[in-house]
Specification:
Helix content: under 10%
Radius of gyration: 27 Å
Distance between the termini: 20 Å
CATH superfamily of one domain: Galactose-binding lectin
């Protein structure tokens, strides 16, 4: 039995309501196991197919013809659905996609049988060409009339031929599955295709070829994110991909919200999460075109950096054109950009990380800001509702306090702040969208940009609208000087009481953040103070969480609190060590020191190094709560999953902790399905 298959049989335990004491029952692994026999019919079937295989050296091939079937029988075994509640397998579409199959569960002693379309349980509704997909069938709900069985048939549902498909690693699980991952409007509209993170490659969504990610959040409810490829032809509205174009999650009332792109605004159809940069050279310099083209309409390339059991990294790269310079002949230069999206079981919000590489340009050539991540989504799933409010944080917290938000809305800007964030919300549909940085503003001034030479709004810090208008005759701050552009330019200053349903959301940095060796940061500690000088050359990087959820649960506030708590951790290790440095950003050759030690802000992870694939460490949380923290253990070279104890208790894998082996990097990624507080959170990892 191959190592990969041993893992599947002995280590995979789904999150469930209950767990029996016996191990999972293997049906097929390179050959039929545990007394199962081949009763297949119709020909075109091979139980020793050499390729493709999911694990080991062989799989089952089925060349569909005239309702032929793979049949696996343990005669008279009397297998109980209550003991074996889940059928688990992997399916590969070969050269085709969407082949149709029927799953039969039978009892040969009593002649009882029932059937269900197998495709109902496959992510995306069917097999996919060139891709292994994980399939999990909850037998009790799928076959309510069957209590005992000894036969499982997978039948081609066609009188003609279908492209050959492949099955591998077939087992009966001793654990039940939680609520259906694809129910209530999720892809497939049926029972779950997997309880782990599922990455579907090359699916067509909203008119663009994309990768679709499905995972379970902190409440073990399903979430779906669709990232459009950026290396092909233009899609609807001229969009070129490289951004989030669909997002789904479950509301507190269990309904499903589906978020899509807008078809209005200057970023319509492009989605969210692309780059936009403005140049200070626009005034007084020379330009060879638009100073701030939208990155969602510029092609590039993508890379599946890491697809793990519970974690995934998806990367976009592009050469972003910069058209403005201080003097000389107008010309366009390319600014290499890398964007990583990170998804993790047990966590609600995708992480978005960016790196800008100016090393091939002369120092000082650019005098630019960054407003990424940038874009528009119908974040309430509707698109017709007016935005109720907007809020942000740099060194102080701002929030509109009357709804719907307009240029004449009341506001407050009088609470100190440490973690940069920005958000919008719509009360009528209980929806919010926001961006939260993974580290404080004083460490990375990539949030809350301002223009001290134009309208220096720091004069309004620690005040409210009761102190008077902060804009051009209207209550809200000058819309050309918001620390985060967001929806500021969606209002007409001539009608300051008018609301807007434009949902543009942006980030914001200082001019010079990109390109200048010395620029005025926005970390000034008092109004009128221009702040210390910083360098924006030769590279800049930062990371944020992209937050989408119900406004009533304040998901942006929770993520801000998480970032604050991460700054208070003290990590120690008696076996292995605490990582004190790492890459300075995604796709960067240089490194940075971690502050606090062990906290990697690039992926927002507590980071350790293993010794002989073992770790004995403690996570002390000085203040607040770490909700389902992400951990990365470097130097983990084993191909097997370890055991993990928290405060002396062995945790159940895939239930209490969610691991992924990143073999090419010798890393073990973990989401702890626990909230950590206080000084003692003792972690022991053993091979």
């Amino acid at each position: 039995m191959g190592i990969a298959k041993v893992l599947i049989v002995s280590a995979l335990l789904f999150v469930g309501a209950s767990h029996t004491a016996h191990a999972d029952l293997l049906i097929y692994d390179d050959a039929l196991q545990n007394g199962f026999e081949d009763w297949s019919w119709g020909g075109g079937i091979n139980f020793a197919n050499p390729a493709p295989v999911h694990g080991g050296s062989q799989s089952i091939s089925l060349a569909g013809n005239n309702f032929n079937a793979v049949s696996m029988v343990d005669p008279g075994a009397g297998l109980s659905v209550s003991a074996w509640p889940t059928l688990h397998l992997w399916i590969h579409g070969g050269s085709g996609s969407g082949q149709q199959f029927t799953l039969f569960l039978q009892n040969t002693v009593t002649s009882a049988q029932a059937s269900q379309p197998l495709n109902t349980y496959i992510t995306g509704g069917g097999p996919s060409a060139g891709t292994w997909k994980e399939v999990s069938v909850p037998l009790a709900s799928a076959f309510p009339s069957i209590t005992q069985f000894d036969r499982i048939d997978i039948q081609s549902e066609s009188a003609g031929t279908q492209p050959t498909v492949y099955f591998d690693d077939i087992a009966l699980r001793s654990s039940a599955l939680p609520d259906p991952i694809f129910a209530n409007g999720f892809e497939g509209s049926g029972p779950p295709g997997s309880n782990f993170l599922v990455q579907e490659n090359g699916v067509s969504v909203a008119g663009m070829t994309s990768d679709r990610f499905t995972w379970r959040d902190s409440l073990l409810r399903p979430r779906v994110a669709v990232l459009a490829h950026n290396n092909g032809a233009a899609g609807p509205g001229g969009a070129r991909g490289g951004a989030l174009r669909e997002f789904r999650y479950q509301m507190p009332n269990d309904s499903t919200r589906t978020i899509g792109v807008t078809n209005y605004g200057n970023g319509g159809y492009a989605g969210f999460g692309y780059v936009v940069s403005h140049s200070a050279w626009l005034d007084g310099g020379v330009c060879n075109g638009d100073d701030s083209p939208l990155g969602g309409f510029i092609g590039g390339n993508f890379q599946r950096v890491f697809t793990g059991r519970h974690h995934a990294i998806f990367r976009f790269t592009q050469n972003y054109p910069r058209n403005c310079r201080e003097s000389g002949a107008p010309q366009t230069v390319n600014l290499p950009v890398t964007i990583d999206w990170v998804f993790a079981t047990g966590r609600d919000d995708p992480l978005w990380a960016v790196s800008y590489d100016m090393s091939t340009l002369p120092a000082g050539y650019l005098y630019d800001d960054s407003r990424a991540p940038y874009g528009e989504l119908e974040f309430d799933g509707d698109g017709s509702q007016d935005v109720s409010g907007v809020a942000w944080g740099e060194l102080w917290k701002f929030s509109s306090t009357s709804a719907p938000v307009s240029l004449n809305s009341a506001w407050s800007w009088n609470q100190p702040n440490t973690i940069p964030y920005v958000k919008e919300w719509i009360s009528a549909t209980d929806a919010t969208m926001g961006i939260v940085q993974t580290q404080p503003l004083l460490q990375q001034d990539a949030g809350g940009g301002r223009n001290p030479w134009y309208h220096d709004l720091t004069a309004r810090w620690n005040t409210t609208s009761a102190n008077g208008a902060a804009g051009d005759g209207y209550l809200m701050p000058w819309q050309d000087s918001w620390p985060y552009q967001a929806i500021s330019w969606s209002f007409d200053s001539g009608t300051p009481n008018a609301a807007t349903n434009n949902t543009r959301l942006t980030w914001g940095t200082q001019y010079g953040f990109l390109g200048q060796t010395s620029y005025e940061s926005n970390t000034n500690t008092a109004p009128g103070d221009n702040g210390p000088m910083r360098s924006g050359y030769p590279r800049q990087s930062y990371s944020t969480w992209i937050v989408l959820g119900a406004h009533s649960t304040d998901p942006v506030g929770l993520e801000v609190s998480e970032a604050e708590a991460l700054q208070t951790v003290t990590l120690t290790a008696s076996v292995g060590s605490v990582a004190t440095s790492g890459p300075a950003g995604v796709n960067r050759p240089d490194t940075r020191n971690y502050a606090p030690a062990g906290y990697d802000p690039v992926y927002a992870a507590l980071t350790f190094s293993a010794a002989a694939n073992s770790l004995d460490a403690n996570i002390a949380v000085g203040a607040g709560t770490l909700r389902h923290p992400l951990m990365i253990v470097r130097g983990f070279a084993s191909g097997n999953y370890p055991s993990l104890k928290l405060n002396g208790t062995t945790l159940v894998m895939d239930q209490d902790w969610f691991p992924s082996l990143r073999a090419g990097s010798n890393e073990l990624w973990i989401t702890l399905n626990r909230n950590l507080t206080g000084a003692s959170n003792h972690i022991v990892i053993t091979p």
